[in-house]
Write a structure and sequence with these properties.
It is a single chain. This protein is an alpha+beta fold and 305 residues long. It has two domains: 120 residues, 2-Layer Sandwich (D-amino Acid Aminotransferase, Chain A, domain 1), CATH 3.30.470; 155 residues, Alpha-Beta Barrel (D-amino Acid Aminotransferase, Chain A, domain 2). It has seven helices and 17 strands. Strands 8, 9, 10, 11, 12, 13, 14, 15 and 16 form a nine-stranded mixed sheet that branches. Strands 3, 4, 5, 6, 7 and 17 form a six-stranded antiparallel sheet that branches. It has a two-stranded antiparallel sheet with strand order 1-2. Strand 12, helix 5 and strand 13 form a beta-alpha-beta unit. The longest helix is centred in the N-terminal third of the chain and has 14 residues. Bound molecules: 4'-deoxy-4'-aminopyridoxal-5'-phosphate. The site of 4'-deoxy-4'-aminopyridoxal-5'-phosphate (PMP) has 15 residues, from helix 5 and strand 14.
Length: 305
């Protein structure tokens, strides 16, 4: 049987339903996270990736919307472990916690309501093609500005922006969209941060470029610096730099490390996955599955041994 965590307890997924009058359903005032857990067959273990980091971001984001939960980071990690055990997950899985106002009330506001958290799992493989690389299009839609709907928060309503851009890209025959921010600089993908390799250095938009503060982005910056000895610049990135980059890749919990081989019908480098991207993928995919001892601190094992 498949379980969800709903209104403070584990219930069969069929019973984890909200009322259509639920306030956050109407106004997009829900904060969510996306975590992955990876199954290691040799270890007979399921590892949750960056569990604490995701829940720290969830709690901080929720507080920004005046949503105070009765759970701390440790509680949420424990609930996640228990949910995965109850669902007897022994394969790669995606975990979706979501905090919302459960009140059956009409006004779009953030005070005087009751926050609730729900959590469920999806069996999930690749999100984008990490082996061949993808084709992307610079979107005609601009990333939400921090002074309207901060991209820094994983807030449900903000994802209309991602949905518009992703749909435009798909309908135009591309795999993913790259959004520019309201200043015209490169922000990120519809659900991924972006990195460029230029002359052996990595470049990525900084936190004040109207992006989500990606957890994978942070981990990848450290891998680039420490393992690959590649310098990383966090700075504004102009659209035209995409066309002259030697390599481009996207990062995200779902997207992992996804190579970009074409931008706006222009080949990136020679049109194949670049060397640095390849090396990064190799380390990342091994680390998340628990195969690199020094990166075990990224992981939370689910099953007792
Ligand atoms: N940007 C956006 C808009 C996203 O939705 C995501 C996915 N959470 C990311 C970047 C990547 O963030 P993370 O590495 O924390 O998953």
């Amino acid at each position: 049987m498949e379980f969800a965590f709903f209104e403070g307890k584990f219930v069969p997924i069929e019973e984890a339903n909200i009322n259509i009058k639920t306030n956050s359903f109407h106004y997009g005032t829900a904060i969510f996270e996306g975590l992955r857990a990876y199954w290691n067959e040799d270890h007979q273990q399921l590892y949750i990736l960056f569990a604490r980091e995701h829940y720290e971001r969830l709690i901080k984001n929720a507080r920004s919307l005046f949503m105070e939960l009765p759970y701390g980071v440790d509680d949420l990690v424990e609930i996640t472990k228990e949910l995965l055990r109850k669902n007897e997950v022994r394969q790669d899985v995606y975990i979706r916690p979501i905090v919302y106002f459960k009140d059956l009330a009409l006004t779009p506001k953030l005070i005087g309501y009751t926050p609730e958290i729900a959590m469920y799992t999806y069996n999930f493989g690749r999100y984008l093609d990490t082996s061949k690389g993808i084709r992307v299009k610079v979107s005609s839609w601009r990333r939400n500005d921090d002074n309207s709907i901060p991209a820094r928060w994983k807030v449900a309503g903000a994802y209309i922006n991602s949905a518009l851009a992703k749909t435009e890209a798909l309908m135009s025959g591309y795999d993913e969209a790259i959004l520019l921010n309201s200043q015209g600089y490169v922000a990120e993908g519809s659900g991924e941060n972006i990195f460029l390799i230029r002359d052996g250095k990595a470049v990525t938009p900084s936190y004040n470029e109207h992006i989500l503060e990606g957890i994978t982005r942070r981990a990848v910056i450290n891998l680039l610096k420490n393992d690959l000895v590649v310098r990383v610049e966090e700075r504004p990135v102009a659209r035209s730099e995409l066309y002259v980059a030697d390599e481009i890749f996207l990062t995200g919990t779902a997207a992992e490390v996804t190579p970009v081989v074409e931008v706006d019908n222009r080949k990136v480098g020679n049109g194949e996955i670049g060397e640095i991207t390849k090396q990064l993928q190799e380390i990342y995919f091994n680390a998340v599955r628990g195969n690199i001892e020094r990166y075990r601190s990224w992981l939370t094992p689910v099953y007792e041994k």
